[in-house]
Amino acid sequence: MLTQAQQAAPTRLQNWLTGARLKTLPVSFAPLAVGLALSHSLSGVNGWHAALTVVFVLGFVLGTNFFNDYSDGIRGADDHRLGPARLVGSGQATPQQVFRSGAVLFLIGALAGTVLAVLVSWWVLALVVLCACGGWFYTGGPHPYGYHGFGELSIFLFHGVVFVCAPVYIQLGHVPPLAVAASLPVGFLACALITTNNLRDIPTDGAAGKNTLAVRIGAVRTRRLYVACVTAAFATGLLIALSRPWALLVLGAVPFAVFPVRRVLSKAGGRDLIAALEHTCLLLLAFGTLQAAGLAL
After folding, report:
1. How do residues 73-127 score in pLDDT, each as one tens digit?
2. Any idea what DSSP says for residue 245?
3. What do you get for the CA distance between the two ends of the chain, in Å?
4. From CA 53, how far away is CA 1, in angstroms rounded?
5. Coil, strand, or helix at residue 144?
6. Distant-in-sequence, close-in-space partners of 111: CB < 8 Å, separation ≥ 6
7. Domains and CATH numbers, the chain
8. Closest CA to 124 of 80, 175, 64, 88
9. Whole-model pTM over 0.70
10. How far apart are CA 266 and CA 263, in angstroms?
11. DSSP helix/strand/coil, 46
């Protein structure tokens, strides 16, 4: 018979799912969907290349989540989290276990990227190096850029520009201007997502010496930044309709923006912002799906 403590203890699988942060996957799937949809509309999609691209992106994204857990945990930034518990900070796993999980996932992403480099272009190896460095140095290394206010810019570039344009380049061999334009709305919403997260964590991040952009500019300006990102996403999304009229489908995501914008502007803080964070994920998923459909059509 298992004791009550043993029954309550999380399994290794539960730990892995916690560290992977699967609820945040819309921030990766949305740009991939947009990039592949645009590729399909221009010249079609190679299924094997698309599958390898998904493995490449998810390997580095999920690996970064584990490395983030590891680095924040050993720095003490997760000791008093207001959001979901992290593995190292909560003691559910050792730093070494979490680091190994991140390393394995990075290796999977790198292998998929290397195969793509052989099949498509050796320039894909530059993407492998870029994603590896961007993922690790976000919270790792002696001078993590996520601790100095560059998290939002990083999320915009990787989960917007890179993860939309990379699948387009892998499919077409070049990046048309429309791909760059299509990456902007997704990037702005990804930026809104991390802005909500950092707004919630201002008290604990500041105390731990994690000087995110939200810590630097304060709660009031961070709330304004969130609204500006959501507004910019819809504005740039509608501009794409000048060349792709079906891009107007993104207006269908407006209802998904109402709740999180209201919650952020209501001066909610701490755990009260978790719902806004979750609904921003839903907004990103809805917007990305509709934008991808509009580009495909």
Report:
1. 888 776 666 667 778 877 888 889 899 999 999 999 999 999 999 999 999 999 9
2. G
3. 58
4. 46
5. coil
6. 59
7. 23-296 (1.10.600)
8. 175
9. yes
10. 5
11. coil
